[in-house]
Amino acid sequence: MRSKATVQRTVVPAKAGTRYGVAWTPASAGVTVVIPAQPVVQPGADRARAAIALVTGLFKLRIGLVIGFTALASLAATPGPSLEGWRIAALGLAVVLSAAAAGGFNQWYERDLDAHMRRTRGRPFVTGELAHDSRWLWLLGAITLGSIALAAHAANWLAALHTFLGAFVYAVVYTVWLKRRTWWNIVIGGLAGSFAVLAGAAAVVPGAPPTVPIVLAVVLFLWTPPHFWSLAIACHEDYKAARVPMLPVVVGEARCARVILAYTVALVALSFVPLAFGMGWIYGAGAAIGGGLFVYASLRLAANPTRKTALANFFASLAQLTLLLTGAIVDSALAG
Fold it and tell me: Residue 138 to residues 145, 191, 279: CA-CA distances in angstroms?
């Protein structure tokens, strides 16, 4: 009858960049056998996801896509001749690219501020993942020029001008001139979104815009401060540490929350004006549902300004804008 060999297993510490090694000794043989540790190879899918996350964060593509969406909603809501599909898509891409260039410049320029804020200290220019040098300025400038040329080719030079002005307001007026100096920074910076609306309208009517896109541009102008002030309340200590004069840092969270409520009520009320100028019930439903959510969240924030209610209002503002713009696109599509 054969005896069973006793096996002793030992985990061998892996070297850097490896998974693990395993050694065992069959007691009957007195020989140790080692399986070499295998190098850890990052799967291609993981590398792709990391690259997408890097690009999305660096160029603030989530914000850029929202800006591009506003341009397309304005284009849809502006009465006039229909544009070819490729022109609509190209204009949307041009606005997204110009916003992406402005977002990238914002991160390049604000590396020192980002290092003081928990929310932003992991950004690639802060961590050193990307070199902070002038080559980025050339790249961002090229993207901006390309977006302007694309807007001019797809639509006209007035649309291209509005595309450029939106990026200029965010990158230069807001980021360089105002953000570190005054709480008016995001109030005036709200013009960036308004120019995207005007770019969409100019693609259809290359002249004075009709009433509906003008109203939507003002709504976007009023929407931006409460959206970002809500985030600033949630990240109050970050902005305070970085010495950025956002409104809640300057006047306190309670007073800022009341200002947010006033802005919210004003922009929601204004969003119903297009109903008097041809927009239909689908747009009205989007304005009512989204506006109701935003006002409710702002009331809760004004009653109890905490991080939780501030973040809830931040996301409510996104829901309101999405419902409003989607309503404008669907309403116009069905009417046309």
Answer: 10, 25, 43
